[in-house]
Design a protein that fits this description.
Blueprint (H helix, E strand, L loop, with lengths): L1 E8 L6 H17 L4 E3 L11 H7 L7 H13 L2 E10 L5 E8 L5 E6 L5 E3 L5 E3 L12 E3 L4 E4 L8 H9 L4 E3 L6 H19 L2 E4 L3 E3 L5 E3 L3 E3 L5 E4 L6 E8 L1 H9 L2 H4 L19
Parallel strand pairs: 1-2, 2-3, 9-10, 10-11
Antiparallel strand pairs: 1-16, 3-4, 4-5, 6-7, 8-9, 11-14, 12-13, 14-15
This protein binds oxaloacetate ion.
Pfam families: CN_hydrolase
GO molecular function: hydrolase activity, acting on carbon-nitrogen (but not peptide) bonds, in linear amides
Keywords: Hydrolase
């Protein structure tokens, strides 16, 4: 089965209404190119590092404009629309960094909450404490769609290979890591991480990214990308501003890659929980 996939690159503002309109324009364009699966970046709804600012525009799932617009678009265009993430107000006063997948009937198929919180101090002075803002997700998710099985991740999750291995073992043929990577870490690691997740799991990786200088002052790396199961970059965007990245996904390439390098089959799962033996020795020279 071959289908066309699109990753939408955005430079989201702090205003969810504006971002919903930009998303709709880009998703329509991607569907016009024949894409039946379209992915948007992490934080499609608002790139906003100021917590009070984010709280002011936050809605619960039922009232969120990105969620509503995405469901309507999926139905109107008869596509699978994956909102890479948007911030959702939870009943307990916390926030989820949540991805949504809608089917061609406009119905929500599943959600996924970002599991790994980006609590990092970079040497350019950027300091991130996502755990102070978001409630981390606790479950890996795989969607069983008519054309492929899709595994979920969001941004920083891409640095935790065991999440994607769990999803690949559960049958995922396409791994997804919509992102808002920092420019500094993106320059050093982005492409390598995406290609590594593809190669070690024999799976496609599709990553829609935020790109450019945002209204809140943040700078994101962009380079939305689609990688095949052999680690080849099929399509990639630049580092700034909106773009649509398209590729034909031949799902049979997953079986072909896994037949050549059967690392899912050859894995020894006990190693995940193994306590390494500590061998001390040597002399100081
Ligand atoms: O923003 C994030 O979640 C992740 C990020 O930039 C990185 O891992 O370098």
């Amino acid at each position: 089965m071959t289908f066309k996939a699109a990753a939408i690159q955005m430079c989201s503002s702090v205003d969810p209404e504006k971002n919903a309109a930009a998303m709709a324009r880009l998703v329509r364009e991607a569907a016009g190119h024949g894409a039946i699966y379209v992915q948007t970046p992490e934080m499609t709804g608002a790139v906003q590092k100021d917590r009070p600012g984010l709280m002011a525009v936050l809605r619960d799932e039922a009232n969120d404009i990105i969620v509503r617009t995405a469901g309507d678009l999926a139905r109107e265009l008869s596509i699978y629309l994956h909102v890479g993430s948007t911030a959702i107000a939870l009943a307990d006063g916390k926030i989820a960094n949540r991805a949504f997948l809608f089917g061609p009937d406009g119905r929500k198929i599943c959600t996924y909450d970002k599991i790994h919180m980006f609590d990092v101090d970079l040497d350019n002075g950027e300091s991130w404490r996502e755990s102070a803002v978001y409630r981390p997700g606790e479950k890996a998710t795989v969607a069983d769609l008519p054309f492929a099985k899709l595994g979920f991740g969001i941004c920083y999750d891409v640095r935790f290979p065991q999440l994607f291995r769990t999803e690949a073992v559960a049958g995922a043929q396409i791994l997804t890591t919509p992102a808002a990577f920092t420019r500094q870490t993106g320059e050093a690691h982005w492409e390598i991480l995406l290609r590594a997740r593809a190669i070690e799991n024999g799976a496609f990786v599709i990553s829609a990214a935020q790109a450019g200088v945002h209204e809140d002052g943040r700078e994101t790396f962009g380079h939305s990308m689609i990688v095949d199961p052999w680690g080849k970059v099929l399509a990639s965007a630049g580092g700034s501003g909106e773009a649509i990245v398209l590729a034909d996904i031949d799902v049979a390439a997953v079986g072909a890659a896994r037949a050549k390098i059967p690392n899912l089959k050859n894995a020894r799962d006990f190693e995940l929980n193994m306590q390494p033996e500590l061998a001390k020795g040597g002399v100081t020279v």
